[in-house]
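> run fold DNA-binding IclR family transcriptional regulator
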Amino acid sequence: MIPDSAGSVAAGADATSDRPQVPAADQTLRILSLMARQPGPVAARTLATALAIPRSTVYHLLATLEQHGFVVHLAADRRWGLSTAAFELAGGYLRQEPLARLGRPLIAALADRAGESAHLGVMSGRDVVYIVEERAPRRPALVTDVGVRLPAHLTATGRAMLAALPREQVRALYPDAAAFADRTGRGPRTPTQLREVLRAVRADGFAREDGEVTIGLRSVGVAIRDHAGWPAAGIAVTWPDEGDRDQTELAGLLTTAATELERRIGRR
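> ok
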């Protein structure tokens, strides 16, 4: 029925102003927001119950999100997890000025204390994108300049962040050998090898990298977690492999800087 007056249209608009104008968009964003707050992949039934959305609708929306790369279906677990496009969104936000501005003085101080080059990066799909780079005097040039993308599974920053993700999420990012890029012939090339690397990161409390990005250079890195405990970024220091450096000592300097940056971005 067509309203017979402008007043009728206005009244109808007022009556529905507190309702979503695009219900599917509202439901999709609510699903993504809830998934982002979970410690790992979640069942569709759980999403439907928590959000009071019909289960059939949840399945349809998840299927669309999967087509666009925002979620992945872990069929064996009957659960859904965030996929690479969701990480792209998160990385896009974190690459913007707030995190770089907050992290830049801390990275400069870290490089000064360590006497080595230091950098800050964020996840973007299966890559790390570097947003702050501080070169130490008389140290070799690095490839980790601002804006450079490197495979996360090969870098200390990326490994630190991957180790902080739920194992199911890592499996969604690296489902098979085709997901593994190579630079120097070193580093994990299969999901099983990556699991071993990340197991060592969790046991040590920091990530190591030796010539997997650039032959002759080593790095150690730690993750920076946000208020929900998710890895918001990673920081690392890099030095020539002929340098006799105590990796545990460097990791301690990294942890101090990471803790302060976590405080500044709102983690308690």
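DSSP finds ten helices and eight strands in the chain.
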